[in-house]
Amino acid sequence: MGRSLAAPAGSCTNPCVHRGRFPWRRADPQGYLEREADVRSRTARVELQMVKRTETREELRSGRAPAKSALGPRGRGLLGRLFGSERVPPAISRPKEAVSVAIASGKGGTGKSFLATNLAVLLNQQMLRVTLVDCDFGLACNHLLLGVTPKQTLSHLLAGQAQLEDILLTTPSGPQLVPGGSGIMQMADLTDRQLLAFASVLGELASANDVLLLDVGAGIAPQVMLTLLAADHVVVVTQPEIAALTDAYAVIKCCARLRADARFSVVVNRVLSPGHGEKTFEKLREVTRRHVQVELQYLGEIPEDSSVTQRRLNQKPVVLSDPDGATARAIHGIVQRLQQVEVPLARRQVDPDATLESRFREHRLFLG
Predict the structure, then answer these.
(1) Residue 66, phi then psi, degrees to nearest 5
(2) Which of 21, 73, 184, 232 is deepest in the core (most CB within 10 A)?
(3) 225-266 pLDDT, tens digit each
(4) Model pTM score
(5) Alpha helices per DSSP H over the chain
(6) Are 298 and 278 in contact (CB under 8 A)?
(7) How far apart are CA 293 and CA 253, in angstroms?
(8) Domain segments of the chain: what residues?
(9) Which residue, among 247, 302, 246, has the nearest Cα to 271 in the 3D structure?
(10) Residues sharing a CB contact under 8 Å with residue 241, sequence separation 6 or more, in sequence order
């Protein structure tokens, strides 16, 4: 009778086992299975360790994880602590600079420069380092209101013919002045190189002062808007007449659409009767709130004063020549409210990418 080729139930069907190549499988099948499971477990642990080492190397390469020390967790940085050479990540330096306040208007003749010069004098009297920059490119007049005659102006600096220390003046009234150019057509349309030079000037002045007043030109010319966008705070000077209010609204609307976090305050000049300035402001605030979604701050009103309009050249600012008059008292009140609105109205720390110079450079790209 021939043998059946079918293997008995439960027996091993691997011919190698019956030929004696793996006798332990036949002798101890249960032990073989345990050893096989142990081998597979060790293999899985080794593979897991290799995966973790690969991930650690990737984290070290990308800087997401600290390097491990051969001395264990407590040994990390031991040599550095012993010899003072442990690498410490450098702290981000936050520079200090002046708060910048731009004085603006929608149209000429509102008294913008008159207010700017008197604000500079009063802030200087409070022992603050104040510099007034005449940013009315081509039509500057602050040197006349402060009684100085500059030999060189901002136009010389931007043309590369002078340095900042050559044009910076200390006025008889106290504050320093950077005089602008007057009657120079080229100053009305600055090149990109000149704008960058002006940004550097603003940065240098901001780092050396407590308050920087920027008397910008009237209207919404590109370089006027650029200075307004860079400033920390914008004071808009207007009058009760409809033309001045319309132009003031245009300045606020254009500036707010380009910088959502811009802050605005309003001064109403040449008011005929007490309280009329606040009523004028309420009209402007309501229109601005409805159409631009910007909240304005009211700094106050300045009364109509014939003695101010008839002032002679080289006469001292009104807060010095007539400190007890109605106009001087009104300007004192404006300074007090400005210090409440813009806190602190003094030198403070700022982020490196939020300095006056960096903001000027940044907004220049969008206006170009």
Answers:
(1) -75, 150
(2) 232
(3) 999 999 999 999 999 999 999 999 999 999 999 999 999 999
(4) 0.75
(5) 15-18, 23-27, 29-62, 78-83, 112-125, 142-145, 154-158, 164-167, 192-208, 222-230, 242-258, 276-291, 306-309, 318-321, 326-341, 356-367
(6) yes
(7) 9
(8) 16-59, 96-367
(9) 302
(10) none
